[in-house]
Amino acid sequence: MKKTKIIGFYKKRWIFFVISLTIMVAGILAVIVKGVQLDIQFKGGALLKYSFEGDLDSEAVADKASSLLGRPVTTQETSDITTGEKRLVINIAGNYGVEASEQDKFDQELRDTYPDNKLDLAESSMVEPFFGKKFLRNAIIAILLSFLLVMVYVWIRFKNIGGLSAGVMALIALLHDVLVVFFVCVFFEIPIGDSFVAVALSIIGYSINDTIVIYDRIRENSKTMRKIPVETITDLSISQSMMRSINTNIAVTLSVSMVYILAFSHNISSIQSFALPMAIGSISGCYSTICIAGPLWVSWQKHKEKKKTNKSNKAKTVPAKA
Description:
Strand content: 5-15%
């Protein structure tokens, strides 16, 4: 049987911790500088999709729509892959939708302004602020509930290697990955919406799966290496499982990257907003599993051992007689 080369992940833990801390600080700065954009599902507003022909200046349409409605408006051109039909997506920000009479007037103004483009309303979506806040609250609850259930599951399953510590460290690694996905959305100015929730829950699934594999390896190695230091057992376990995690991550990243490239080439924003954070989040999940969860767990175990040793030494100390 081929002997596994042990990589000193625990010894290099501070390098990994500094890298993660740098990413977190950079992400917080991005939030301060760029702000957080909420998608229409979470903030309310209106989304109008028009089919059109020929060439159309989307920025001019945005300016026209903004002046007509008196609200911030952004536009984006897309095309249908199968039919080649061109579409103009108009995102109208605000704490309310668009009244039917106001929308009819707006439609007519656009048709009169751009008669040669044959603009035709294909789809409209209105989200009231009340429902937007409700969707946002439910999305946050879903993510937090998944965190809690994962921690409880790991706690129960790995009781013989310190279930609570294993669960907490897995939770920290998952939080790291979700924050990376969030910061990617902020940096690339991707609105936070249902795509973010889908990516976050998917990354939680991928990341905890890899972490459980490593914990399982630590549990098995601990049974046969009782006198070996915990950091050596963990480094060996991570080294034995590392290629599996990396190969899985490569497969996921390549497939999602191809989806993003195709969506980018056809200007499909809804798929882009899922594929890009998913690709980067997948890499983060692999990194946190290998470089964060294991070394953090070892640090906790060694801290517990140190406290136990100090307590034992104090118990053995006999007070000097006066």
